[in-house]
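Attaching the record inline, Q. Sequence:
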Amino acid sequence: MARIRTQLRKDGVLAILNSAEMNSLVRRKCEEIQARANASSGGGYESSVIKTDRAHGAVYTGTYESAKDNARHNTLLKSIG
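Structure, as predicted:
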């Protein structure tokens, strides 16, 4: 079988990472994880998406109670799945 060689073009990859579709995908995934964390613990988790060279998303504890819950039960880690 012949070996297939592929080469990624940097400008094409950057165009995909910077696209509005990728930004909305990251936002949707963050909101899903936030909803799972809030459902299992009673609330207090927040999410945000920022765009620098590409979209970055984060789900984090927004209150002292959610931080305590996350430290005891690993709620954010379990909510990723």
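The two ends are 37 Å apart (CA to CA). The mean pLDDT is 93.

More tomorrow.
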